[in-house]
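Fresh eyes needed here. Have a critical look at this protein's tokenised backbone.
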Amino acid sequence: NIIYFCRMGKNRRQPILIENIEIIDTASKGKSVAKQDGRAIFVQGGVPGDVCDITVFKRRKKYWEARIEKIHTYSEKRTEPKCEHFGTCGGCKWQNMKYESQLSFKQNEVLNNLKRIGGIDLPPHQEIIGSENEYFYRNKMEYTFSNKRWLTIEEIQSEENIEDKDACGFHVPGMFDKVINLNNCYLQQEPSNAIRLSVKKFADKNNLTYFDIRNHHGLLRNLMIRTSSTNDLMVLVQFYKNDKKNINLLMEHIKTSFPEITSLLYVINQKANNTMYDQEVICYNGEDHIMEEMDGLHFKIGAKSFFQTNSEQAKVLYRKTKELANITADDLVYDLYTGTGTIAQYVANSAKKVVGIDSVEEGIKAAYLNAERNNIDNCTFYTGDMKEIFTDEFIAQNGTPDVIITDPPRDGMHKKVVEQILKIGAKRVVYVSCNSATQARDLALMDELYKVSHIQPVDMFPQTHHVENIIVLELK
């Protein structure tokens, strides 16, 4: 490889051009990896097998970061991205890689994390289960309004005075106040794109102000669209300014333009952040929820409810979780981080009783309503911070579980939760995770008591580096 050092100002480190270097692997957050003199170089937009020239723009002691300048040899694993926003938008970083290769690298990431971070003996793994739909698989999308649109290189180089700086789309990776204005997105079925584009067109025509993310002013803040297999459709607009006239103007436009919307909601959020779990959701038209159906079970999903964003693949995940839990008619099952009680109700007909816990009150309320709707009478649900509620007193009140199913958020389980699981010593723990790194960390803490008996990766998010993984733990 040929390395060139480029001249720059005295106070900036010189970028380095490296020619004819091969991309050899994938890395976290959708990046790829090359190696130079034993040092890892994380490269944006590369596919393993590419031979290219790269410019190193960040140097750390243990690794460098680089971008591709020119590709000399294209990898056989490459494919042409569908989306015009690929390379700028951070949503589908693997859209330039064939799907079978995506699956292979996802599986390798899971196994490498379990070995490297978990440091545990692994049984033979099962092949990753791919998604039938590679595009248009998401049932939930969230878009951001911003008065600081991300400008293209062509726009910047034109030196023209650009007046249209409003955007509705996704944040640019690493830039919290810059938003890419989306023309078309391949993640959610129509009318998702149509609704987003219609809202923006109406807002522009009527001079509705877009949110200034840095200085906190403006009307339009966020747009959420949720769909379901039952043809229900939820649209929620989040406003910053409490401008009743213009709020009603926009909401009425959405209502009349898209009569298929079954749940039309809005939130007035004047906090610094856009989380709405502590905000009042106002129903403008229709129901305050949508319904989802899975294998004969029906689930009520509110604006704040957590639900797997790939409904079809969620069925695969839940069926496999139930199968691997191997629950008998006499078993008491705990479902930690239960959300709207989906997994709990999936396994309820196999168990004596299921106890679900989650921190989101709205989700637990929905779980009870879902259980009633599904004629399930052996599920009990509790609301609370997992590390605070999952105590000896809770166990004494609800019974010692025979099987524990846990599906925590990306950060994994709190140490107190892991300690309580070890104290209980259930015969089987099924750990579902969307982050195999934190899953591996937790498994290392449980290695003294449990052995891993089954590994099953499941791909919920094609075109991205994200992957779900099911681990079965049995008492040693």
Residues 7-11 have pLDDT under 50 and may be disordered. The longest helix spans residues 99-118. The CA atoms of residues 116 and 440 lie 8 Å apart. The first strand starts at residue 2 and ends at 5.
